[in-house]
Design goal:
The complex is a heterodimer of chains A (216) and B (569). By secondary structure, chain A is mostly helical. Chain A is built from six helices and four strands, in the order αββαββαααα. In chain A, a hairpin with a 4-residue loop joins strand 1 and strand 2 (23-25). Chain A starts with a helix and ends with a helix. Mean pLDDT of chain A is 85; it is low at 1-28. Chain B is mostly helical. Chain B has a domain at 357-503. Chain B has helices at residues 27-32, 37-65, 76-111, 120-143, 163-191, 204-236, 249-283, 290-303, 322-331, 333-347, 356-379, 381-387, 391-421, 427-454, 468-499; strands at 531-532, 545-546. In chain B, strands 1-2 form a two-stranded antiparallel sheet. In chain B, helix 3 crosses helix 7 and helix 14 (427-454) packs antiparallel against helix 15. Chain B is globular, with a radius of gyration of 24 Å. The two termini of chain B are 22 Å apart. The chains are: A mainly alpha (216), B mainly alpha (569). At the A-B interface, helix 1, strand 1, strand 2, helix 2 and helix 5 of A face helix 5, helix 6 and helix 7 of B.
């Protein structure tokens, strides 16, 4: 039957009815995927927040002083100078990621390739820096005989973040290869959008961790 | 082309018979690794049902042990493992997967007029994590099952048997499954509703699922963090919870209950949705206060995040926090009361048809209210000091979870079973099952209130002889409760397929969309996606759907100015 809903003035959001073909058309896929991905990131925020809560709780409620005292000696603070350098590397990768996407949106292939490559390099550099920092941190181990609550919260949170960066670097490499194989077109590139969102998300988490561990 | 909503762009997707994915032909792709939400819903139902039988068996061992003060059915150590596994299995392997995975997957896409959920493959992955998690959980019996209760408080759980680590893995896995389901459902309900189905025209079951989905993907992740920390502390000695290494056991309680209190609402909100469907259908009356029922669901979900520490009043938490948590907890009684009174007002003056789903739904009103009221006692800090860790708590949460969730699940089973199978169950057997369940349930758990107030602690394998009589009363009742399950299984699984009459599209005279199509629904649910003109509960008016490829027997709308007034905006 010819649907005359529109003529009757009913509000019908979320789709449309075609008078001639009697069909319903969904605006499917892209905004659904985007919403799903954003909700996934929300869930991830809660994962980090829970460990951040654990850290704040252990630091303020459980341990009488911070850094905590282990075997009668107070642990040293973390090295802020190196962490600043490493943070600049990570934030820099956020900036290059932005320019890579700008290159993509304006169909400037060379600009995209240059900045995507830089982003991946900076991300890998951050991971290397984190490895260096792990070897030189003197805050007690993650676990085992020399484990401390400082080490537990620091290595768990930054380790989880590092794992996210690692996944992000792998994801960006895959995206780069996909772009090389022309998987995405100028108007369908949800994978790239998701990669960018994820990368900025990882940056933002690091801002929180930086304040909580190095500046507090 | 008529543009019905400003700003909505058309895309070249999904014409009438254009499918999101083609119907599979092989048995394995159709029924085992299916991406059809209806099949996945039934898979959740079967798996969750099997785990329910195992968990129920564990409960009967508990009750057998408590038949005498010095019960010797199992050793005290085994007893600890059994009640821990009973609780863990019931919460994570039975109720949560049944309320969201089973009914959410089967009913919700049908009710919003969609052909599937937003991400069918994600749905498949989320489902298969669930039986794997269940197998891991139950296999912990082979290496020494967890024995610190379903809450697994450290430091006891840190020293627990190896099965405790398997418990962490299993619950983490089922948590990932819940998270994915929550995201999937949220996107489905926000983006895939039929044209015209605005928020205030959604069925209340959909409202309930919509309010539950953020709980699934927000709260469950917090549990994941707590489990991860427990697992690494047990395995690598990473100090989070062990006070001997500077950690804090109270930290676990905060992280655990930050999830596990919202989890209570994950287990009950979808059931509220089931009740809100069953009551108007069998009263032949619009639901009273549609908007209030919907908004109270949302406000319960939000408030649920702010009350977790009421589980911890005796834990040595910061004392000044007790008062705000007590007040916030009591605030939840307001939206819950709004619901209960709206449901009662729905019954008022209706022409009530006492079919089995209606009996269960009405019993739900009674038993859940009992559970809610004892929750009020427990939320009061001074009273909680006396009742904490006693059988009063056991009575309370069984009234909420069995008298609430499981009763509501039974209502949902009987209500939608004809839709799922296309056949009617045996009404007489259903009603006998109801009466046995209702009486035996109260016989099992009502005495626990008195035992708890008399001072009997929970989680004990032997007890003082003064508690003997009511324990025996509870045990005998629980055996009857278990037997009534056999009747239910016989009715649903053997009688219905063999002798059940064809149900037709709409055996109950329901008005939500799933009743407009054949039973069981065709693979793609809706050949044509209908347009929705009003909320579904206006009994007596023409059905508010147009453009529907209705099954014979379902009457389509002929909207008039009186029946479906045109909104003025």
């Amino acid at each position: 039957m010819a649907v005359s809903v529109a003529k009757q003035g009913y509000h019908l959001g979320h789709g449309e009815i075609d008078d001639h073909h009697d069909t319903v058309i969904y605006n499917e896929t892209r905004d659904m995927r985007l919403l799903g991905f954003v909700l996934f990131l929300c869930a991830d925020v809660i994962l980090f927040s829970s460990f951040i809560f654990a850290y704040i709780y252990l630091r303020t409620t459980v341990s009488p002083v911070w850094p905590p005292i282990v075997d009668g000696k107070q642990l040293p603070r973390l090295d802020v100078a190196f962490a600043c350098f490493n943070s600049v590397v990570l934030f820099g990768s956020g900036v290059t990621m932005h320019f890579a996407m700008e290159g993509w949106r304006h169909a400037k292939k060379r600009m995209f390739n240059l900045f995507m490559g830089l982003t991946i390099l900076l991300g890998a550099g951050f991971l290397g820096g984190q490895g260096y920092e792990y070897m030189h941190a003197r805050i007690g181990g993650w676990g085992g005989a020399n484990g401390s609550i400082f080490g537990a919260s620091f290595f768990t949170l930054t380790g989880m973040h590092g794992f996210h960066v690692f996944v992000g670097v792998c994801y960006l490499i895959i995206l780069w290869l996909q772009v090389g194989r022309n998987v995405y077109t100028q108007d369908r590139y949800f994978g790239l959008t998701a990669g960018t969102l994820y990368w900025h998300f990882v940056d933002v988490i690091w801002v929180a961790l930086f304040f909580l561990f190095y500046l507090w | 082309m008529a543009t019905l909503a400003p700003g909505v762009k058309t895309g070249p997707y999904h014409a009438v018979l254009d499918h999101i994915h083609p119907e599979p032909t092989s048995f394995i792709r159709r029924y085992i690794f299916s991406i059809d939400a209806k099949v996945i819903g039934v898979q959740y139902m079967i798996t969750g049902g099997l785990f329910f039988l195992i968990a129920g068996l564990l409960a009967e061992i508990i009750r057998a042990q408590l038949m005498s003060p010095n019960g010797a059915v199992v050793t005290p150590a085994t007893y600890n493992a059994i009640y821990s596994m009973h609780g863990s299995a019931m919460v994570w392997m039975v109720i949560i997967p049944l309320v969201s995975g089973a009914f959410g997957n089967f009913v919700m896409p049908l009710q919003i007029g969609a052909r599937d959920v937003a991400f069918p493959w994600l749905n498949l992955v989320a489902f298969w994590m669930f039986p794997v998690a269940g197998i891991i959980l139950f296999s912990s019996f082979l290496v020494g099952a967890p024995d610190a209760g379903w809450t697994e408080y450290p430091p006891i759980s840190l020293q627990g048997p190896p099965g405790t680590s398997l418990w962490c893995i299993a619950i983490f896995l089922v948590g990932v499954s819940s998270t994915l389901t929550g995201i999937n459902f949220a996107v489905t309900m926000l983006k895939m509703r039929a044209p015209g189905m605005t928020f205030t025209r959604m069925p209340l079951f959909v409202w309930a699922q919509l309010a539950t989905s953020p709980l699934l993907f927000v709260a469950t992740t917090a549990l994941g963090a707590a489990l991860l920390a427990l697992f690494v502390e047990r395995t690598f000695g990473v100090p989070f919870y062990n006070p001997a290494h500077g950690g804090s056991p109270v930290l676990w309680q905060h992280m655990f209950w930050f999830y596990s209190h919202p989890a209570v609402y994950i287990m009950i909100l979808p059931v509220f949705g089931i009740i809100s469907e069953v009551l108007p259908t069998f009263s032949k009356k619009p639901i009273f206060g549609y908007k209030m029922v919907a908004f109270s669901t949302v406000s319960i979900a939000l408030l649920g995040f702010t009350v977790w520490a009421h589980h911890m009043f005796t834990s040595g938490m910061v004392p000044w926090l007790q008062l705000p948590f007590m007040i916030l907890t009591m605030l939840i009684a307001i939206p819950t009361g709004v619901k209960i009174f709206s449901w009662m007002a729905t019954l008022w003056g209706g022409s009530i048809d006492w079919k089995t789903p209606m009996l269960f739904a009405t019993a739900f009103l009674i038993t859940f209210t009992c559970g809610g009221l004892t929750g009020f006692f427990l939320a009061a800090v001074p009273a909680d000091y006396h009742e904490h860790g006693s059988y009063f708590v056991v009575a309370h949460f069984h009234y909420v979870l069995y008298g609430g969730s499981v009763m509501g699940l039974f209502a949902g089973f009987y209500y939608w079973w004809p839709k799922m199978t296309g056949k009617m169950y045996n009404e007489t057997m259903g009603q006998i099952h109801f009466w046995i369940t209702f009486i035996a349930f109260n016989g099992t758990f009502m005495p626990m209130h008195w035992l708890g107030l008399m001072g009997m602690p929970r989680r004990v394998a032997i007890y003082d002889p003064q508690y003997t009589f009511w324990n025996q009363f509870a045990s005998v009742s629980s055996f009857i409760l278990a037997l009534s399950m056999l009747l239910f299984l016989y009715n649903m699984l053997i009688w219905t397929p063999r002798k059940g009459k064809p149900a037709g599209p709409n055996p109950w005279g329901g008005r939500t969309l799933e009743w407009m199509i054949s039973s069981p629904p065709p693979y793609y649910n809706y050949k044509k996606i209908p347009a929705v003109l009003a909320a579904p509960y206006d009994f007596g008016n023409p059905l508010p759907y147009i453009g529907l490829d209705a099954a014979p027997g379902a009457v389509e709308a002929t909207p008039t100015a009186e029946s479906h007034p045109v909104p003025t905006h």
